[in-house]
Amino acid sequence: MNIGEASARSGVSAKMIRYYESIGLIEAPSRTAAQYRVYADDDVHTLRFVRRARDLGFSLEETRELLALWHDRSRASADVKKLAMAHIRDLEAKAAELQAMADTLRHLAAHCHGDHRPDCPILSDFATQPLLAEKA
Amino acid sequence: MNIGEASARSGVSAKMIRYYESIGLIEAPSRTAAQYRVYADDDVHTLRFVRRARDLGFSLEETRELLALWHDRSRASADVKKLAMAHIRDLEAKAAELQAMADTLRHLAAHCHGDHRPDCPILSDFATQPLLAEKA
DNA sequence: CTTGACCTTCCCATGATGGGAAGCCCCATA
DNA sequence: TATGGGGCTTCCCATCATGGGAAGGTCAAG
After folding, report:
1. Tens of pLDDT, residues B54-91
2. Nearest to B105 by CA among A89, A77, A115, A103
3. Cβ distance A132 to B56 under 8 Å?
4. Phi, psi (rounded to 5 degrees) for A30
């Protein structure tokens, strides 16, 4: 099948399929005489794997590791779980960070009348708050 | 004061201060004969405002709007609150999305033995799950 | 006067993705 | 058989916010 069909079947855009190939995330498929890429069902399988990993927030480099683990039948499930757990911690840390920002803003907004008057503690806070701790 | 001191006092890197100037987020300061940028206390005040907005997850374009609101003494606090509330919704939606990813992974990981054996439902799921709904 | 810290501009890189141009290929229909 | 339209190819550019680093000018202390 051509790249268009592989894209439709895997949910990965043709643009991204070519990109993943260019960075060596997936293997280069064979080509027709006219240089058209030709994919097999197995390739769609792999693309879906990548798509799923991306949907779950893994970076392309992490996805690369997952693919390697997937192809390595001798690796222990502990290796996979370790990577997954580390990623879960990352995701939850980021979620908590966003929620903390929202909480801070919500707190400020609670003290803003939100009427026709110009006074608003949200902006005054922005202008005067001491710096937050530097990000690591 | 020079850009280095303005940077130290505001918590915004010199690199970013120049960038913010280049995109018109902040005004171009006056210069010495040697083309060194010269900042006043008020500029540091503005930079801190920007820093705080960024820390709270506002994009540079949103920060631009906030700066305009800050400088506009005739605007109603409702305008500010409206922007803030919209941003809070964005932040909470993103936080929830990340948490949902983490939950999904945690669920998968719970069924992975995590021992020396190779079987791991995490990766098998990746390879076989139907596509998630397309993102908006 | 030298040295070192600071400033200037300019270009490049990141991560993941999309947009679009120019040009070739393939198939169906008139 | 010719033509048209859609799909394929490569290549370059844009996004968002930030940092790295080179090459060169400047300033202040010793």
Report:
1. 999 999 999 999 999 998 888 888 888 988 999 999 99
2. A89
3. no
4. -75, 170
Q: Domain spanning B3-63: which CATH class is it, in words? A: mainly alpha
Shortest distance between the Cα of B79 and any Cα of chain A, in A, equals: 7
Residues 20-39 of chain B with CB under 7 A from strand C are 31, 35-37
| The residue type at B121 | P
Residue A133: what pLDDT? 44
Closest CA to A100 of A135, A67, A124: A135
Q: Does domain A3-58 have CATH number 3.50.50.60?
A: no
Query: What are residue A89's phi and psi, to 5 degrees?
Result: -60, -45
Q: How far is CA A48 from the centre of its chain?
A: 14
Nucleotide nearest B16, from its CA to each C1': D18
Residues of chain A with pLDDT under 50: 133-136
Which pLDDT belongs to residue A126?
A: 81
| Amino acid (one-letter) located at A135 | K
Which nt is closest to the CA of A14, judged by C1'? Answer: D8
For residue B40, pLDDT beyond 80: yes
Domains in chain A: boundaries: 3-58, 77-128
